[in-house]
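To close the section, here is one more complete example, presented without commentary so you can practise reading it yourself. The ligand is glutathione.
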Amino acid sequence: MKLYGYFRSSAAYRVRIALNLKKLSYDYLPINLRQGEQHAAPYRALNAQELVPLLCDDRGAFTQSLAILEYLEERYPEPALLPDAPQARARVRAIALSIACEIHPLDNLRVLQYLTQTLGVGEEAKNACYRHWIDLGLSALEAQLRHDPATGPFCHGAAPTLADICLVPQLANARRLPMPLDAYPTLRGIEAACLALPAFAAAAPQRQPDAV
Ligand SMILES: N[C@@H](CCC(=O)N[C@@H](CS)C(=O)NCC(=O)O)C(=O)O
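Output:
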């Protein structure tokens, strides 16, 4: 398997975690987003969306991190990253989507670049916007998880799921901004439980070969 990614990409980070949890080995091919390699012809020929991650294997080339996670789950079911019961699977997917659809797209590089380079928004206003959407999303998630009996050491019970795989990279992204995370004690507790696992720790941005 080949994973095209970038050390700081939270979407690629999700896939790295899943590959590690499932003990699947892969070649990591860095695409430098800061230098615009996602827009250059060689990568564009592989992924017309000009985004990472891209996972290639013997069956094809796959884009969109959540689709990739579901593909890995279906093809390599152990260890499971979704619980068994339909209602539990819906809960896990809803948490993952609340991050992947409601938070992450608003803090993507191209959105931030559009604010500053096209709309002429200043650095301070850009970061205020960035923090606003992360805080809105994480506050809702904190409120949702804090008193829900289905929450365990992880977002759902006692084992990591797709929800944790989305949460940990989003918190890393928020820290890098930086923004305070004091208001999300439940999320930080879950993050600590995840990062204690080698599969999560090895997927961290600073552990990747293209980290600077
Ligand atoms: N929904 C996509 C998002 C992918 C995405 O936004 N990737 C970012 C890095 S986290 C990217 O490649 N950005 C390049 C850019 O903004 O130019 C997924 O989950 O895979």
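Once you have examined the tokens, check your reading against these statements. The chain is about 50% helix and 10% strand. The CA atoms of residues 5 and 153 lie 29 Å apart.
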